[in-house]
Amino acid sequence: METSSVKFCGYLFDRKQGTISTNKNQSKSLDNELFHLEHQQAKILNLLIDNRNEVVSREQIADQVWQGVIVEDNTISKAITRLRKVFNDSAKSPQIIKTIPKKGYQFIAALEPVTELKADLNNDAVKPTNLSSFGLKSVVAFAALVGLLLLLILMQKSDDETISAQPTPLPKAISFREGIELNAHLHADKKQLLFVGDTADGYGIFTKNVGEANARLLTPVSSRRVYPKWLQSSDASFVFSDLDESQQCQIYKFDPASESGRENVATCLNETPIEVFVDESRSSIVWSDNAGSWRQSIASSIANSMGKSIENGKRQSLPYASQGINFQMPSPNGELWATLQDDGKNSKLVVHDIERSQVVLEKQLPYSISHFKWSKASDALYHLGEHPANQLFQLSLKGEHQLLASTSLGTMTSISDLQSSDTIEFVISSVDLDVHQLQSGQETKLINSPFADYNPALSTPSNKLAFASKRNGSAQIWLQDENASLEQLSHFERASYIFDLAWSPDEKRLLVKRNDSIHIIDINSKEEQVLPVDAAEKVDWQWISNKQIAYVDRNSHSLFSIDLEDQNAALLMANVGRAQYVNDLDATKGWFISDVAGATLHYIDTQLLDSRLSGELFSEKQLVSNQLKGRYWIVSDGKLYVVNQESDKPTSLVLLDKDGSELEVISGTFNPNSLRATHQSGLIYHRMNRNEANVYQLQLR
Fold first, then answer.
1. Predicted model pTM
2. Is cis: bond before 220, omega within 30 of 0?
3. Among residues 405, 391, 402, 349, which one has the least CA distance to residue 373?
4. How many CB atoms lie under 10 A from the CB of residue 562?
5. Quick check: 480 and 447 in contact, CB under 8 A?
6. What residues contact 550, with CB distance under 8 A and at least 6 apart?
7. Average pLDDT over residues 240-265
C-alpha cells in the first residue's frame, strides 16, 4: 500500500484500520462519523485502490480477498454492492467503483492529497529561523518537543506495523460432538460449559468440562431455541425458558443436585422459548416477551448468600417495550440497557442509561444482524458481521468499532453471554458435503470426508471418480481410482467454484467449468487447456465426441457445439431449455432436449458424420414426456428422473413413467444440480450429509 490513508469524494479511508471517516479535516476525533468496514470490504477497497489504473477481475478479487474460500460470482457482486452502499455510490452512475462488463471492477475516484503529521513537522512553517526571537531555552524546549513528537510517531508506526503483522486470532473449538451445538454459556469458573445439543430423539441441555470430549445430558428440551444460563457462580444451577406440554412458554430453574431437577419459576407470554438473562448482582432474572420486559427475583437462597433481602418470585415491569425491537439485553452491571432494531437490510444498536433515561450510544450498521452481547465489564457490545457472518466485532460505548476475529472455518451464527473478560464464546456452523451414488435402487456413499466434496463425475466403464473439493484450502479437482487412491488433478492458482465436470468418451480428458471459464485437463499429463469462451449463462456442458463438446446458452435458448481442434462454435438447435447427449454402447446415440418452458422432453436420434454434427439431423423428434412441469430432469439408461422441489416438503428425485406416475427414489439433502448419469441406470450426486455447529472460544487478552 502506498500510504496509510487515502481521501476521495469527501471520504477519508484508513487503509490499515479499515475505517471510513466523512470528516473533511482528516481528524479522527470520536465526535466525527467513523465507520468500520467489514474485513472483506476493506480488502476489496484496498485491492481496487492499489490497481486503480487497471480493471480488477473477479478472479483477482476471489484470490486476494477470500484466499482459497469457495466463492460464487453472486458473492462477489453482493460484496461490491455493499461496498457501494457505504459510499452511496451508484452502479448506474458510479463515482467510485465502476463495473466493467465481463471484465471486473475499477476504482475511478480521484485521490486527494492527505497531509500527515510527519510531513507537517518537516514544513518550514514550524521551523524556528531566528534564535533571538525564541531565546535559547525556547529553542531547546522546542527541539525537545519536536524530538518527542518524532519519537512518538516512530513508536506509533512501529506499534502499527507490529499490530498489522500479527495474524488475526484464531478461535478454538471447545465442543466436539457431531451435530448441532448451540447457545453455550461458560460458567464463571471458566471450566464448565452449558449448551443445547441434539439427542437421539430430539434436543437437550448438556454440560461438559472445557477441553474434554464427553458431554452429559441434563434435561430434554422442546427445540434448539432454548438458552440455558448459569444462575450463580457458586453452584451448577441454571435457568432457561422452554415450552411446556401445553405449548405455553415457561421459565425454569434446574438444579442438578436437587431431586426435583426442573422447577417452574415464571410464566412468559410467547409462542417460542425466550432468552433469559441473569443479573446476579440483583439476584434476579430479566427477560422480554410479548407482554413487555420484566425483572424477577429468582431465589431467596441467592439473596441470603449475598446479604440481601429480596422477596422471592416478585416480578417487576421494566420500562422497555418490545414493540419494534428485535433483540434487547441489560448490561451485566445492571445500569445500561441495549436494544437492536433490524429491518432486514440495516440494523441500529442503541444503549440506554436506565437511571438517567438517556441514550449513551447509537450505532447504525449497513447490514442485518440478529443479536449482540455485552462485555463482562459493561463497556462494549459484541456483534457479528453480515450474514453469512465470518467476522466478530467489538463496539465500545465510545463508538470505537474494532474487528476482533475472522474465520474461514464456516459461518459464525451466535455469540454467548460473556462470563469473563478474557474469552468470548460463539458458534461456528459448517456444512459437510459427501459424494453418493444411486445404483439399482440402492444409495451408497463413495466419498466420505470432513471436507466439502461436491459435483462428482464418474467415468464409464473404468469407474474413475472426479470431484471438486476444498481439501487444501481452495477448490480443486480430485481424482479417485478403483483402489480408492486420491490424487489432486488441478492446481488452480486462484479461488474458484467448480460448476461442471464431464469425462471425455475415451476417459483421457476432463471438462471443467470453473467460474466462467472452461478448462480441458489431460488426465495423464495434467496439462490444462483454457477455451476462449465466456461460460457465463451457459449450462449443460458435455462431450459429444472426443473432439467436440456442447452446451446450452440460456440467453439465446440455443444448443451449440465447439470443435476442440479449431475451437469454432456451431449452432445445433434453437428453442432449447436443457439438453443431454447420450452415447450408451447398447443404445442409439442421440439427444434428450426440453423446450424453453420446461414442459416437454423429446428424444432426437442422430449420428456423428465426419466427427461433426449438423443441425439438419434434428428433423425427427420423439416425445418422451409432456409431464416435466418446469422441473429439473436427467436421463440415465433411458429412464427419466425429475426433481420435485416444494417449499413445505423435502426435495425428492422421482422416476417418471410414460403414464405420468412417479416413484420416489431419493429425497432430502441432495443437490439436484450435481446429478450426473452413470452406466446401468445409475446416478451420482453430492449430499449435505451433516450440518455441524460447534462452540468456539476466542482469547480476548
1. 0.52
2. no
3. 349
4. 21
5. yes
6. 540, 541, 542, 543, 544, 559, 560, 561, 562, 572, 579, 581
7. 92
